[in-house]
Request: fold
Amino acid sequence: MKGYIILLGLLLLIGCESKPKYEKITKVEDYDVFLNTKNTPTLDETLLQQRYWSNRLDKDTTGIGDIGQLANVYEQLFAETGNMQHLLAAETLYKKAIALSADNFRDGFERGLAKNYISQHRFKEANDLLQKSFEGPSQKRPTQLMLFDSAMELGDYDRAYEYLSALKDMSDYNYLIRLSKWSDHSGDLDSAIKYMEMAKDKAESHESKPLKIWSYSNLADFYGHAARIKESYAHYLKTLELQPDNSYVKRKIAWIVYAAEGNSKESHRILDSVMKNHQLPDYHLLKAELYAFEGNTAASKNAEEQFVNAVEAGQYGGMYNTYLIELYAEAAPKKALEIAEKEVANRNTPLIHSYLALAQLQNGQDAEALKTIENGVEGKTFEPVALYHSALVYKANGNSKKVKELKAELEEASFELGPVMTGKVKEL
Reply:
């Protein structure tokens, strides 16, 4: 880190009187076998695929199909390792395939590149590429599905709904998962779960392992949002049975162990195993929260610094901007505001506006922060983080009624927020 001492609000310790009640959900024997860092079947298979397609390209560097296949393999490698170089390698290959392909075969590679851009949080570039592709010779439906994705990421919800309405097909897995996402965005979590369960049923009926993995893990996320923690945990385990080296799911189990059970020591153990094979920077932030929960301020600060160093060195672009805003808000508020303004220009969503309001608040711009919340956040999102930022702004502007309303709503999201943030909510 370059001279910044991080003072994240996470470091506010929870007194004994404010600690939540914990419930035993997990069993070590359920997931311990999956913590074997040498058990990496997905990564092993992907590396084999990398060698196979690379060898094909060595013989014929203009093989369009080979280029596309290798690009997809590199994206899988990014998912399985967190190494940003793989995602950037995939971007280069997709661009090469687009340049070499005939007009009527280009759209598949354009969708691949757009997906890559979305992974990098380059949402405008993704949307522009998809719009151009849609207007040319292309398979319209898969491109429209992705246009829904990019519109949601950009906060262009009216346009996203238009795409979704035009694509309605309750028998289509890809439609159902997007209908689920829209329902969640609209605050209808019950419907979001219902549609994801329908998608899961389709994945199972087709015996599609990739779709089952995706469906189980996403359904587990929704169950967690609904405080149905046992069901969430069960579906994470179902995912690991199919993909033992799924780092995302193991991280989620680490969160259950911490947030639902208060067992930070075991959560550390799970994360330590994940981090041996996977290197995304945000693992350090979860470690920082665990240390804060334990009262180890020095270790928490060190973990935050490790996060910042990893982001600065890893060519991640704007992928971690919201985390940086939160981190810099107190220690370097001008820097936080600079990042927040950039992020809003890239991603005009209510959640991002809440981060802008937080940065404005920490820069002494209480009135500006209130305008940001009223115009860009209030009534437009159900994200607990956005609601917490809103409560801080209302409190600074003397609106105790709003603070009380938001506090009550936030207290119902204690699992999502975690013990440390729940403690902060109690102090509102």
Observations:
- Residues 1-18 have pLDDT under 50 and may be disordered.
- Residues 77 and 286 are 23 Å apart (CA to CA).
